[in-house]
């Protein structure tokens, strides 16, 4: 279980039985449902979730509501990978087409560019931060990101967290400790992103 210091103080979750934990491949279907909160062209595919959660699941955290009569419900997730670059790249957003047949823990390059997870990378590359629509607003997302940052800093060897954000979310991530480095070179989903980093 990951710490919930910030989420525990979030009024929007008052009275709800919730917890954080690292995600696994068993959570892929739930991740796909949560990811549908994004515009379609920005969503992670089921295959890419399988790849990312197979590579290094300890960098991906889910926010769950406990349902004592049914299975617990995923209401938000943060998906991370390792990268050897200080900011997100187009290559880090991709996955090797033949990832299932590659030796585990081995970096894969295409045309000289590292693709997907770099097991030796010192950057935690955050590729998805999302809450289901009914839990957006009210400060849950901000508290979730802050708890994720605390979890990474306390448990994961590295030098920084990095992500890309739309301009209207720069203030949100700055309030969580990230620094805006300006326009990103990433062309994912049409580009227009900003590089954000948080050293640790």
UniProtKB/TrEMBL annotation:
PROSITE patterns: GNAT. Keywords: Acyltransferase, Transferase. GO terms for cellular component: cytoplasm. It holds the Pfam family Acetyltransf_1. InterPro entries: Acyl_CoA_acyltransferase (IPR016181), GNAT_dom (IPR000182), SNAT-like (IPR051635). GO terms for molecular function: aralkylamine N-acetyltransferase activity. The keyword Acyltransferase applies. The keyword Signal does not apply. This is Acyl-CoA N-acyltransferase. It comes from Penicillium atrosanguineum.
